[in-house]
Sequence to fold (84 residues):
Amino acid sequence: MIKGEYDYLKALAEINECAEHGKPLTVATHPSEALWVLRCGEGEYPDTIRHIPSLTEEYKQGTLPSGPIADNIIKGSKRRAVAM
Ligand SMILES: [Zn+2]
Fold:
């Protein structure tokens, strides 16, 4: 169970998901204590959460490393012999 300040948990919930179920997280009140806790979409209180990759991060992870492929440039210029 992940406890903390409301603002802290709210920020966590926006960028993380339940590591066990892959469900979105919400900030909830502790069932028996005067605390804020993270609750997942399964209605459970996860001990582990994982970061949800942003579109920018997915793009970065998908980019190809720079390599010699870009150097493969075909030179199409040919001089054409013209018969006189
Ligand atoms: Zn869960």
